[in-house]
Amino acid sequence: MRTYLVTGGAGFIGSNYIHYMFEKYGDEIRIINVDVLTYAGNPENLKEVEGRDNYTFVKADICDTEAISRIFAENDIDRVVHFAAESHVDRSIKDPGVFVKTNVLGTANMLNCARAAWEKPDGTYPEGKRFLHVSTDEVYGSLPEGDGYFYETTPYAPHSPYSASKAGSDMLVRAYMDTYKFPANITNCSNNYGPYQFPEKLIPLMINNALSGKKLPVYGDGKNVRDWLYVRDHAKAIDMVQEKGELFETYNVGGHNEKQNIEIVQLIIDTLLEILPDSDPRKANVSRDLITYVEDRKGHDRRYAIAPDKIRAAVGWEPETCFKDGIRLTIEWYLAHEDWMKNVTSGDYQKYYDSMYKV
């Protein structure tokens, strides 16, 4: 039975990946999920799998050398999928030190612990050991409107503390691959959306606010462009890279769904009005009049767009979910999981929301 060590598996993308892997492989694999359970790590995301004999949860910080080393010592880890990261740009602007600690030092610790467990005396590694570092397209900086794409060869030009910390973690992985021939890959993905996403991010924030009749805060003129990727498609890409990708390579994972932020907000409103029955009192809350433009984010990149040509050619992966379908699936999930949303938007989240948007 192949054993996977997943870091940050209680978060948005990590939990969707774990669900995907158990749906695909069932009892053929074992997953150990390591998560320190910050505000974005939610055990409720994995309620359906927590009773499985081949699933183990370990509450630990990826910066804790002793804890991570113990996991490697007590288990024959075949694959590492490293999601764990601080990931919200707004929070990185307020507190960059946390992002450096988790994203850079945490990744360094994961690399060191994996290398110590896997490297043989002659400097080689057993067949089948693979480390996949999950990163972001934000490391590449910003693109002109309507012109060009990010490729794996695009120079790094991060503009926020978040993207700079992820760029630093990418460089560490590259250095280990070059220096130690460490068996790793890097994936750089575009904006993900789908079930279990913490509502500080654009899409769940707008869904939640619209249902409650709250203002829909849009930065600047709302015309910043992002490439959107349905999270299940991302989970599939990660699995395919670990199964078929060439070691030491970086693969960009994009959705071919470029949208302005204001387009996203308008589509969410229109889809909610279409889905909600007239008998649902929340339908009366939903309106484009809720859209409120707020002061633009510092260092706000204008456009991201990924060319997934390399991953398509190498492993045969392509995004399968068109944006209109993905948004509908996402909204339907949030409507069916109101208790999940209420639980994650209580307490500290509300204080954060009030401080960020002031609307």
Walk me through this protein's architecture:
This protein has twelve helices and twelve strands. The longest helix has 23 residues, at 96-118. The radius of gyration is 20 Å and the shape is globular. With 359 residues, the chain is of the alpha/beta class. Helix 8 (261-275) packs across helix 10. The chain has a domain at 2-193 and 230-254 and 300-320: Rossmann fold (3-Layer(aba) Sandwich), CATH 3.40.50.720. The strands form three sheets. A seven-stranded parallel β-sheet has the order 3-2-1-4-5-6-10, sandwiched between helices. A three-stranded mixed β-sheet has the order 7-9-11.
SS elements, strand count: 12
Can you tell me the CATH topology of the domain at 2-193 and 230-254 and 300-320? Rossmann fold
β content, as a range? Answer: 15-25%
The helix content, as a percent range, equals 40-55%
What is the CATH top level name of the domain at 2-193 and 230-254 and 300-320? Alpha Beta
Distance between the termini: 52 Å
Estimated radius of gyration: 20 Å
Shape: globular
Secondary-structure-derived class: alpha/beta
Averaged pLDDT, please? 93
CATH superfamily of the domain at 2-193 and 230-254 and 300-320: NAD(P)-binding Rossmann-like Domain
Q: Count of helical segments?
A: 12
What can be said about the biggest beta sheet? 7 strands, parallel
Q: Largest sheet, order of strands side by side?
A: 3-2-1-4-5-6-10
Low-pLDDT stretches? none
